[in-house]
Amino acid sequence: MRFMNVVARLAFGALVLALVIGIVASVGTQFHIWDFRVGLFKIFPVCLGFGAAALLLGLIWVVSALFLNTGAGARYGVIGFVGAIILLINPVYDIAICRVSPRIHDISTDVEHPPEFVALLAQRPDAENPPDYDGPNVVQVDGKTTTVMALQKKFYPEIHPVGQLTSPEKLFARALATARNVGWDIVAVDPDAGRIEATDTSFFFGLTSDIVIRVKPSGMGARLDIRSKSRVGETDGGTNAARIRAFVKKLIASG
């Protein structure tokens, strides 16, 4: 069963190459050896290409093994096939999400008077996306003119301010504890201004998003607003909205 052994080894080899190229793309971007566009859009697609090859070769091995009723090259064939699925599933999902997500990267619970970055300004001099809120920016979608603010309301209607019947001081303390619990890097804490600033960096490629939380009195209680913005990229694939949703869910549960 020479054919089976060859296909299995090719699947395994393609998987190994895919993993090596993927790690190089990610680490090189994290250590600023090249721009994120090079790592993410030029090198990483090569990783996906070898991953797809490993998946195809692995599938050929699986089908052949079933029809020929033999396990020749099983160790390499199974690892190549299953490993390719594991390697490809998240990137393919992310690509699919990006295709249906709005091309925005700045999300705020308050679109009229969004929280502003203060301490974080010094940490983002080379950021591609400016610190100003994108909400009023005019964009073209399917030939129609709209704004980033309108797109957020359309695609993420669940993103809104958090009101609590508690004191601003208690809500601020809970917000700070929640920000730490979700693993964000706390950059600044200003209880007097009711402001918390933090960053969240992705494990792969080291892409950073900036976060600012604002807590202020509201009626008989307190109101919390949060804003999350990517430093680079035209679209975030819904990452910033998901980040805010996760934070709010944990904050409410902490009460």
Strand content: 15-25%
Low-pLDDT residue intervals, each spanning 5 or more residues: none
* Biggest sheet details: 6 strands, antiparallel
Number of domains: 2
Could you tell me the CATH topology label of the largest domain: Alpha-D-Glucose-1,6-Bisphosphate, Chain A, domain 4
Give the CA-CA distance, first to last residue: 64 Å
Order of helices and strands: HHHEEEHEHEEEEH
Total DSSP E strands: 8
Could you walk me through the main structural features you see in this protein, from its secondary elements to its overall organization?
With 255 residues, the protein is α+β, with helices and mostly antiparallel strands. It is built from six helices and eight strands. A hairpin with a 2-residue loop joins strand 2 and strand 3 (144-147). It has two domains: 2-100; 106-254, Alpha-D-Glucose-1,6-Bisphosphate, Chain A, domain 4 (2-Layer Sandwich). The chain has helices at 2-30, 36-68, 74-100, 148-155, 168-181, 239-254; strands spanning 106-108, 138-141, 144-147, 162-164, 185-190, 195-201, 208-218, 221-230. The model has no long low-confidence stretch (mean pLDDT 95). Strands 1, 4, 5, 6, 7 and 8 form a six-stranded antiparallel β-sheet that branches. Helices cover 50% and strands 19% of the residues.
